[in-house]
Amino acid sequence: MSTKKTVKKAAAKKKPAAKKAAPAAGYKGHRAGTIKEKLHLIFDQNKKNPEKARELALKLKDVAVGTVTTSFSQFRQLDK
């Protein structure tokens, strides 16, 4: 009869993962530096003139029209 030797897997010797630091809290609970944080800040600074807020938001780099529209509608719902 043949005898089989057991081979220990390298995966069993993995070290526990290091804990990640919590992301820095930004404006109104958004992560610092995110597009969502910037949009919320622009929205709150220009509540009296929503068209100006929309124009400023669209000038941000890498922001789509749909993102601005949905974000602003969410912010309006939060204010109610």
Shape: elongated
Secondary-structure element series: HHH
Per DSSP, the total helix count is 3
Question: Mean pLDDT across all residues, rounded?
Answer: 86
Structural class category: mainly alpha
Give the number of domains: 1
Structural features, described:
Helix content is 44%, strand content 0%. By secondary structure, the chain is an all-alpha fold. It has one domain.
Brief descriptors of the model:
80 residues, mainly alpha, 3 helices, elongated
Summarize the structure.
The chain is an all-alpha fold. Helix content is 44%, strand content 0%.
List the helices and strands and how they pair.
Blueprint lengths: L34 H11 L4 H9 L6 H15 L1
Helix pairs in contact: 1-2, 1-3
